[in-house]
Amino acid sequence: MVSKRVSSTFQRGLILAAALGLCRQNGFAGQDEDLDLIPDFISAAQPAAAPSPAAGGNYYKFFIEDEAQTNARRHGVLLPLPGKYVPAWSNRFTFYGKADVRLTPSLSLNIVDRFNHLSDIHSDFPSGAAQNDLNEAYLSWNAYREYYLDAGRINLKSGVAVGFNPTDFFKKNAISLRTSEDPIVLRENRLGTVMARAQGILPFGTLTLAAAPEISDKPGRFITDRTSFALALQRTNAYPRYLAKISSSYKAISSDLLYYRENSTSYLGANVSRSIGDSFVFYGEWSGGRRYSLATDALIYDAKLYGVDGSKYAYVVPGDSKRRFRNQAAAGFSYTESSRKRSTFVEYHYNEAGMTNKDWDNWFLAGYAQRLLNFPELAPVYDQVNTVLWSIRDYAQRNTEPITRRQIFIRNQWQEAFTKRLDLANLLQLNAADRSFFLQSSAKYSLTDNLFLNLSAYFYAGPEHSEYGSINKWSAIKPGITYLF
User: Fold this and answer.
1) Is 1 among the domain residues?
2) How many domains are contained in the chain?
3) What is the reported pLDDT for 83?
4) Which one of 95, 146, 185, 436 is separated from 316 by 20 to 30 angstroms, measured CA to CA?
C-alpha cells in the first residue's frame, strides 16, 4: 500500500488497473442480511469466569423459533454490494438445543447446537438453505477441588465491555450467522474453538490456560467443509493459539491480565472494573500487539483465501500498511435502576487498526470513479473493485471488530417494561467521525411461560459518504415467535 496521497484521477486509474489483475472466482459473503436473530435478552453483560461444577444436575434447554424479515432498500448507494441483492422479505426457522449432562460426579458433557433453515422471496416453499452449527461440544472434568479441565469445541469469551471486547481473542471468524447486531447476542451464539482449557482458583486469583491446535483446511472433509452439517473448524482453528489469563478481585475492583499468542505473534490485554454503590460500574478493557491495519489484514486474508497476488490489492485502499504495535480499547460505565429492572451501558471504543478519515475517503473514491467513468464495458471491473472494497467491511464484521477508529456505543435493557410480560432492548452504534449511526430496537412479549412474540427494527442512518449511510438497506423489520420446551 502507499501512504502518500496521489491525485484522485491517477488513483482511480490505479484502482481500475489493480482490479483488472484480480482473479477471484467466488463472491464474498458481504454484509449479512441478519436472517437469524435469536432473541436472547441477557440481563448481565459478563460471562461466568469459571466453569459450572460438574457435580450439579443435568440441564436442558430447547426452543423453536420462526422469524420473518422485511427490508427497505436504499437506492443510489455509492458502492452497492457486488453480486448480492437485498430481498424484500426473508424467513428463518431455528431449532436450538443446549444440554449440560452429568456423566459422573466429576465429569460432564456440554453441547450447544443450532439448526437454521433460511429462505427468501426467491425460494419456492419448502426450498431454501439449511445450516447446522455445532457451537459447543466439550467435556468438563472437575479434576481436583476447584480445578477444572475442559476439552472440545468451547466458546471461550473474555472482556468486561459490552459493545466491543479487545481481549476477546477467540472471537475471530467465529460468527456463522449473524444473530442480530447486538454484541451480547453475537458473543453467545458464535462458533466455539477446538481447544483444551484448564481453570483453577489459586491464592492470588483465578488462572485460565487454553491451547487451540491448527486444523488444516483440506477440501472434502466433514470437519472443515462449509456444507449444511459440516463443522467448519478451519474457521476457528486456522492456526495454533494460546491464552493465559489471571483474574483477581480486591474489594470493589476486579481485574484480568492476559497473554495471547497467535501463530508467531503475541498480544497483551487487561480488564478492570470497579463498582460504585449499587447502581454504577465503571470499566475499561485494552489489548495491544504487532499487527497490520484492519484493511491490510482483510486484503491479505482474501489474497490467501482466493489464491490472489496480494500486491495487486495495494492500490485499492492506500494507507498505513506497516506491521507495528497497535492498540484497541473500550471504556465506559453501566447504570442500573434496580427498582425498574433497567440497565444502561455507555462506551467509547478505540481501534487503532481501524480505518481513518483518509482511509474512508479512499474507500469511497472507487464509487466516484464509477460515476465519472461510467462505461458499460467496464462493469465487470467495477464489480471486482466493489468486491475488494466490501471485503474489508465484511472482514471487520466477521471478526467483531469496529471498522472505524472511534465509535460510541449505548445499550439500554429494560426487563418487565410497563408490564411484567414485556422486555425491551435498544442499542446505538455511532461513528464518531462521520456521525452516521446504527439503531436496533427489540421487544419480547410473553404470551405464556413458554411462548413469546418478538419484534426487532433496524435503522442505518447517515449521509451517502458515511459508514452506515452507504449500506444497501436503510431499515429492516423482524417479527418472530419463539416456543420453549
Assistant:
1) no
2) 1
3) 59
4) 436
